[in-house]
UniProtKB/TrEMBL annotation:
Transmembrane stretches, start-end: 64-88, 108-132, 152-170, 182-199, 234-255, 267-287, 310-331, 352-372, 378-399, 420-436, 442-461
Keywords attached to this entry: Membrane, Transmembrane, Transmembrane helix
UniProt KW Oxidoreductase keyword: no
Superkingdom of the source species: Bacteria
Source organism of this protein record: Flagellimonas aurea
Source taxonomy: Bacteria, Pseudomonadati, Bacteroidota, Flavobacteriia, Flavobacteriales
Protein name stated in the entry: Purine-cytosine permease
Keyword Membrane: yes
Amino acid sequence: MSQYNIDEEVEEIAGGEFERQPVPQSKLKSWKSFLGMYAGEHAAGTEFVIGPLFLTTGVSAFDLIVGLLLGNLLAVLSWRFLTAEIAVKYRLTLYYQLEKIVGKKLVIGYNLANGILFCFLAGAMITVSATAVGIPFDMEMPKLTDTMPNGITWVVIVLVIGAVISLIAAKGYETVSKAANYMSPIIVLAFLASGIVALRDLDVNSFSDFWNIWGEGGEPFPGQIKYTFWHVTIWSWFANAAMHVGMSDLSVFRFAKKAGSGWTTAAGMYVGHYMAWIAAALLYAVYLKSPEAQAALAGGNAPNVAPGPLAYNALGIFGAIAVVLAGWTTANPTIYRAGLAFQAIIPKTSTFWVTIIAGSVATLAGLFPAFAMKLLDFVALYGFILAPMGAIIVFEHFYGKKVNIIINYAEKMNVKFNRAVFWAWAISFGLCYFISVTFDVFLSFMTLPAWLLCGTLFLLLSKKNRQTSES
C-alpha cells in the first residue's frame, strides 16, 4: 500500500518533465508499464501490519475474505473510471491541475498536508523495519497499545534506519526506483511463502479448515473496535482514497495511452491488498496460538503485532530480511514524495535538503509506535483529509459545464486562493469529522459523504462566484 513504488520507465519522466504541461503523445506508455508498478507498490511494509490488525478487530472469515474482495474491486473501479479517465483527458499532474482550479496559495496548503502525512506513513514503515532489525539484539517489541518509545535500543535502531533511508532517498528517485524494482518480487514471494507456512502451522488441509481460522469472529482486542463486513469493505475501498478518488495518481496515469490502463491497479489490489493482507493475518493467527500470546490475552492485554518476529518465526532470516526490505521500499519513495511536496512550498531549497528534512520528520515519527500500531486508523484519517480535494477535480470535469461554472477558475481569473474550494473542503471535512467523533461513526464511513459533499458544495459556491463576477 506504499505511495509510489513506480516503474522506472514511468517515474523517470514523472519525476523530471512535463510538470506544467500535458504529456506529449510520444511519451505515452502501454498498460504493461503500469501492471508491474501496481503489483509491486501494494505489496509492501504496510501489508505486514494491516493484515494482523484486521484480526485484532475480531473480524469473521466471511467479513474479511468477501469484504476485501468487494472493497478492492471498488478501489479498482475508482481508479479506472475516475482517476485514469481524467488523467488521459488532460494529462496533467495532480498539483498543476489543482493549481488551475484552486490557486497557488491553496495548493501550498495541500502540499503541506500531503507532505506531513507522507512523513507519518514513512515513519510507520521505519517502525516496521525496526521490528526486524531488533531481533538479534533481543529488543523489546512495541505493543499494540504502545504510543511512546519503549527503550534506548528501540530509539537507536529507529534513528539508524531512518538516517540510512533518508540519505538514500535524498540521492534521488532513480536510485530508489531501481532498488524497489529489484526488491518487490522478493517481498511478494515472502508474503506468499508466509501464507503457505502459516497454513501448515495451522493444520489447514481444506478450504473449510481455512474458513474456520476466523470462524464467526470474536471480540476485538483491547483498544480496538469491532469490524464487520462493511468496516472491511469500506476501509479497503478507501485505504488508497488519496490515490484514486483523491486524484493523486493523475500524476501516474497521465502517461497512459488509454484509460483502460486503470484496470492494472487490480494487480496491486489483489496481490497486495488481498493476498498479502490475508497472508500476514495468517502469520498473526499462528502467533495467537503461542503460549506468549495466550498469556497476554488471559491477562486482558493485546498480543504484540510486530511484523519482524512474526515473519521470522515463519520463514527464519528470510522473513526478517523481507520485513526490512518491505519497510525500506515503502519508506524510501514516501520520504522522497514528501520532500517534493515540501519543495513546492520552499522551491529555492535543494531536493537533497528537503528530502533530508522529510526523512528527519519521518524518523521522529518512527520513534512512536502508535503510527504503525494504529495504522488502520491513520490510513482512514489520511484518506479522509485528502480525498475531498480530488472531488474538486472530478466534479468540475463531469459537471462543471453542465452547471455553468468557470472551468479552471483560478487560472482564468488570476486568483491565488479560490475561496469556493476552501470552504467546500472545510465545511465537508468539519461536518463529517464532527459526526464521526460525536456519534462514534467509523471514520472511513464518512470519507464518501465528505467527498460527495465537497464536490457538491464546490459546484454551488463556484456558480455563485460566476454570478458575482458577472454582476
